[in-house]
Structure formats: C-alpha cells, structure tokens
Design brief:
The longest helix has 30 residues, at about 310-340. The chain has a seven-stranded mixed beta sheet. The protein has a five-stranded parallel beta sheet with strand order 8-2-1-11-19, covered by helices on one side. It is of the alpha/beta class and about 375 residues long. The radius of gyration is 21 Å and the shape is globular. The chain contains eleven helices and 20 strands. Helix 1 packs parallel to helix 8 and helix 2 (about 45-50) crosses helix 8. The chain starts with a strand and ends in a 13-residue tail after the last helix. A hairpin with a 2-residue loop joins strand 9 (about 120-125) and strand 10 (about 130). It has a domain at about 1-70 and about 100-160 and about 265-345 and about 375-385: FAD/NAD(P)-binding domain (3-Layer(bba) Sandwich), CATH 3.50.50. About 35% of the residues lie in helices and about 25% in strands. About 45% of the residues are buried. Bound molecules: flavin-adenine dinucleotide (FAD).
C-alpha cells in the first residue's frame, strides 16, 4: 500500500499496517521528513492508539501530563475543563512537543520495516499510482492512502481558510504557570494568548512550553513590519505573567505562523484513494483533537483491513467506524472556534456571561471533559479486543 504523507496519520498507518504484515511505502515531499509547529495535546483516545503501537510509554516519558484547560477574559473564568470531572482515575491528556511525537512515530515506522521515499512531492493519484511534481509516477499499489494533511492535493473539496491563525513558539519553561494546565487569556475573542507545557524533545532537556498568540491572517504582514517590541507590549498588557517567555523571543523569526482551515469531506473514500487525518477533516485546533483524530483514523483503517478480506468491504467498515465521531467533532469545533477566535463582541459576551457560568453546572463539567478527552461518540467502542 502507498501512504502519501509522513505526518501523524501517515506514520501511524504505516506502523499499524506493517504490524499486520502489509508492505507499505511512504512518500513525503520533504527531503528529511520533519514536524512543523510547536506542541499539541494527545488525548486519552490518541494515547490508546500509541499504546497499541507500543510507544505510549516512550511518549509519556517525554510529554507533560495535563490536568486541566483554563482560560480567563478579564475577571471572567471562561474555560475550566478538568479531566478529573470524569473521575479521579480518569485518564489525563498528555501535552507533547510535536518533534517528540514525530520522532516516536518515525522510529516505530522504521523499526516496523516500512519503506520511506522522501523528496517526493505528490500532485495526484490515479489507478493505484501516485504522480509527482517532477512528472514521474510511482509503481502501482493495491491501495493509496492520502495522509497529506490539510493542503492535500488529493482532497477534492477545497478547504475554507479561517480568518484567524496563530503565532507559535517553543520556549524554555520559565515563569509562574501551572505545569499541568493549558492556560489562555482573552480580550473578547479578538485577542488570545496561550501557554501550554509540552515536556521535552529529548530526555535530558529543560522542560519546554508552547506559547501561542492569535493573529488574523490579513494582519500578519502588519505584525511582521511593526517592531517586535510593540507586539510584546500588546501581549504583556493582556497577560503580564508572560514577561519571562517574551524575553526569549528576539525577533519575528522566532515565531511561526500557523494558518487554520476547516474542511470535512462527506466520505473518506474517493475513487483513487482513501483519506486519513487532516486530508479528510481539518479544523482549527481549539478543541485540540486533530492529531488524535489522525491516530484514530489510522487505527480504524488498520483494524478494518485486518478484519475484512475484501478491500471494498474493509474500506466501508473504516468509514463506518469513523464517520460519526468525525462529524460530531467537526461540528463541535465549528461551533466553538468563534468563541475563542473571531471579531464578534456578541459571541465573546455570551461566552463570558452565559456559556461559561452554565458550563459549571453539572453535567456541564463532565460533558466538557468528555469532549476534550475525545470521548464523545465513544470512538474506540467498536475497536476493543
Ligand atoms: C498550530 C496547531 C496546533 C494544533 N494543536 C493540536 C492539539 O493540541 N491536539 C491535536 O490533536 N491536534 C492539534 N493540531 C492538529 C494536528 O496537528 C493535525 O490535525 C495533525 O497533524 C494532522 O495529521 P496529518 O498526518 O493528517 O497531517 P500532517 O501532520 O500535516 O502531515 C502531512 C504530511 O504530508 C506531507 N505533505 C504535505 N503535502 C505533500 C505533498 N504534496 N507531497 C508529499 N508530501 C506532502 C507533509 O510534509 C507532512 O509530513 C494542531 C494543529 C496546528 C496547526
């Protein structure tokens, strides 16, 4: 099988399929596949897939356990989701450096015996072959798996770019932040700063945090041309405790802009490929689910291929295993994103004065904890054993 893309979905697919004896070849446009970005939270459902792959404990040794997500707008606490709302022993999230997750999955993929072809810029797929931007084509495969992420050229439906993205940086963990919380500060929904522990890339390193700052796409150039100190003043005014983190940022180049987009294909099954991860469903990272969804997709596809001898039936089962969970979370993300990143004063007002207080009334805390933990719709229920 051909897997296009060496990201979270592609690498997890490759390892899981190799474990079932399938010959897989991965293709990535990068000369040396590498992660882009700072950190992300692995939810209990995603960690379950890493455990199946046998790399969960290695990941836990590098990541930072997360107990809660906490956010304030002025004096209003507008986000307070605690995993222990689901029970004292309920599994927690694990915040990780993107590079650490990539390395753990990459090593597992190589150890499992997958072949990797790098420097291969995929532009199309047809008749079991991938075509590349240099005009060449791959050999013919039984199945082409599209794990090319949110800009996949194999995804037929255009993505909808969201007005807001964010600037990200991985910084040394200094300052007065809860080491077990993702914290955010907002001004309405126009401004947002976040600090999230992400553990380490290698064991002996100093603990890191991901710092992020919401920016409108169309104001990115204005941000870049303004002095960096003017931006720092803005951040400090919103959240004075970030002072020591800001001291580690010397120029605009120390921050990477991540654009966010939304797209949900009605089915992961296309004529010439099957989609996994962001190529099927991308969204803003407000709910922190994208990598988990990618891991679940990979798990479900490998599970279905293992249980059905007929390829079409296996793909049909893959779709059934994932469709409703994907639709539920894409809808939830669509609904929640404007509350944290938009120009609407009305939505922010409702968030602060109505939704946040209501969410503290049972069963609000349990419902939100289950949402964040990736457990709405019980995505693993049909894949146990
Ligand atoms: C800033 C940010 C924060 C996030 N935070 C979280 C979080 O807290 N929790 C969470 O679960 N998710 C989070 N996400 C989402 C998560 O990162 C993605 O959902 C996840 O990485 C998707 O995995 P993927 O394998 O589908 O795509 P990707 O990880 O994007 O991998 C795609 C791969 O395909 C390769 N590729 C792309 N185009 C081509 C081409 N034409 N030819 C060949 N190769 C190509 C790329 O080099 C890459 O290796 C966040 C995303 C962003 C941007």
């Amino acid at each position: 099988m051909a897997i296009a893309g060496c990201g979270v979905a592609g690498l997890a697919c490759a390892s899981l399929l190799r474990a079932r004896g399938v010959r897989v070849v991965l293709f990535d446009k990068l000369e040396k596949p590498a992660p882009i970005g700072s950190g992300l939270i692995l939810q209990p459902v995603g960690l379950h897939v890493l455990d199946v792959l046998g790399v969960g404990d290695r990941m836990r040794a590098l990541g930072a356990p997360i107990e809660r997500l906490y956010g304030k707008s002025g004096r209003h606490v507008v986000l307070d989701v605690r995993y222990d709302a689901l029970g004292a022993d309920a599994p927690r999230g694990l915040s990780v450096h993107r590079g650490a997750l990539f390395q753990v999955l990459y090593d597992a993929t190589l150890a499992a015996g997958a072949e990797i072809e790098s420097g291969r810029d995929v532009v199309g797929a047809s008749g079991g072959r991938l075509s590349f931007s240099d005009g060449t084509k791959s050999a013919r495969f039984d199945l082409v798996i599209d794990a090319l992420g949110m800009r996949s050229p194999l995804s037929t439906q255009p993505k909808q770019n969201l007005a807001y993205g964010a600037l990200w940086a991985s910084l040394d963990s200094v300052g007065d932040f809860d080491p077990a919380a993702l914290e955010q500060r907002y001004e309405a929904a126009r401004k947002m700063a976040g600090v999230m522990p992400i553990g380490v890339l290698r064991r002996e390193e100093q603990q890191k945090v991901a710092f992020f700052w919401s920016v409108r796409h169309d104001r990115r150039d204005a941000w870049r041309t303004a002095p960096i100190d003017a931006w720092k003043d803005d951040v400090r005014a919103l959240w004075p405790a970030t002072e020591q983190l800001l001291a580690q940022i010397a120029s605009h180049d120390d921050l990477v802009f991540a654009a966010y987009a939304h797209r949900t294909l009605s089915s992961p099954l296309a004529r010439d490929c099957v989609h996994v991860g962001d190529s099927w469903h991308c969204t803003s990272p407000q709910l922190g689910q994208g990598a988990n969804m990618a891991l679940l997709d990979a798990y479900a596809l490998a599970w279905a291929l293992d249980r059905q001898s007929d390829l079409d039936m296996a793909l049909g089962e893959y779709e059934r295993l994932r469709l409703w969970h994907i639709r539920l979370y894409q809808a939830a993300s669509w609904l929640f994103t404007p509350a944290y990143q938009s120009d609407s004063a009305a939505i922010a007002w409702l968030r602060d004065r109505l939704v946040a207080p209501l969410s503290r009334v049972p069963p609000g805390p349990q419902v939100l904890a289950a949402l964040v933990a990736g457990q709405w719709g019980w995505p693993l229920a049909a894949m146990r054993g």
